[in-house]
Amino acid sequence: MPELPEVEALKDFLTEHLVGHEIVRVLPVAISVLKTYDPPPTALEGHEVVAVHRHGKFLDVETSDGPHFVTHLARAGWLHWKDRLPDGPPRPGKGPLALRVALETGEGFDLTEAGTQKRLAVYVVADPQEVPGVARLGPDPLADDFDETRFAALLKDERRQLKGALRDQTLIAGVGNAYSDEILHAAKMSPFKLASSLTPAETHTLYEALRTTLKEAVERSRGVAAGRLKAEKKSGLRVHGRTGQPCPVCGDTIREVSFSDSSLQYCPTCQTGGKPLADRRMSKLLK
Q1: Residue 80 half-sphere exposure, CB side, CA atoms within 13 Å?
Q2: pTM
């Protein structure tokens, strides 16, 4: 799933390629991708793009005197830039193409989604706050006003484990499964540690790991073409998706805990005092 660093890079990429250009066609291929119907997607046509914004993991294309095009790429969605779009409208079918946006230059982009779970979402709204997921977002962890005091206040009464708290978009916007693993590895903390149990020193360590991990990922992604962002993300991960490989810090074997629809990866030596974490469905969680 694209997370804050990749969506930030897509925002920068689209700012460079969309701003100042007119949207001439919005062509839904999979009707299920549209989560709003009034105004219709055609309301974007004839309007110039004036800005591109990021809200957590949401991309927001703002048009002049017109609606916003807001999308969430979900787990298996992606944006593919085309220097020259194919002639003629796309044909509905069983392929991954979900929606196409064309500019007056002949350029544009496709939104695609792989797999059978269709969660890619597109909203056409007068204000991005009309999108329920945007309206519920917590603070952005890279915002200038997101300081350690604010972070500590968020975690003070949070009775969940750190892994779940970091992934909660209503608590902190933009961090998903991959970067929560990376942040906790950088902080040398168990994903099952209770958020409310952190000492002030531990809160400081986690805050620094959060900001540093995300800033470094944003910098790695900056200037990377949209088509190469997935590979760039994977190459920069230290523990997530690397089960069975040596930890780049201590050399211990990276372990995994699986859930019904996801998994987490961690280093026992760096994060849990050398003890493997039990499956949360079978045993009492480590604190």
Answers
A1: 16
A2: 0.92
